[in-house]
Design goal:
Length: 142
């Protein structure tokens, strides 16, 4: 997570979470649910669908209708991975930004802990957490 402005904002700091996706129907609903459960509630989730051809659009549109913190946007042509990552970053409004992937599972306190780490180190411009690699069933890989 990066702090773009480095200005203190105790309390209601908006964190933009950019989720670029292409044909992520198998996992995107679970990834979005993890983001929605964040203990730091002042978030916006920006989904940039890179012209998916599977059920990704229907899944994302449905979840966006249920949660006003989610903005779903679909490209009219495939921009490539880098283009879609850049696009979702440009759509962000918060002073803090975090990337998410369509097949990520985040701990509920991930954003909160990243903000705490940034608060503890005022000279820091990036915070991230340890991660585990998991298989398609959620089993941790060595």
């Amino acid at each position: 997570m990066t702090n773009r402005t480095m200005t203190p904002d105790p309390g209601g700091r908006l964190v933009s979470i950019g989720l670029p996706v292409y044909n992520g129907a198998d996992y995107v609903a679970e990834a979005i649910d993890c983001l929605r459960r964040q203990t730091h509630g002042n978030i916006e989730i920006i989904i940039s669908d890179n012209c998916s051809t599977d059920d990704t659009p229907a899944i994302c549109e449905q979840v966006a209708r249920r949660d006003p913190r989610i903005r779903y946007s679909r490209t009219d042509r495939n921009l490539g991975a880098a283009g879609n990552f850049n696009r979702v970053a440009r759509l962000a409004r918060g002073p803090f930004f975090a990337w998410a992937n369509h097949d990520d599972r985040w701990a509920d306190s991930y954003i909160e802990q990243c903000l705490e780490a940034l608060d503890d180190r005022r000279d820091a411009v990036l915070a991230y957490a340890r991660s585990e690699k998991i298989d398609e069933t959620g089993r941790t890989l060595l």
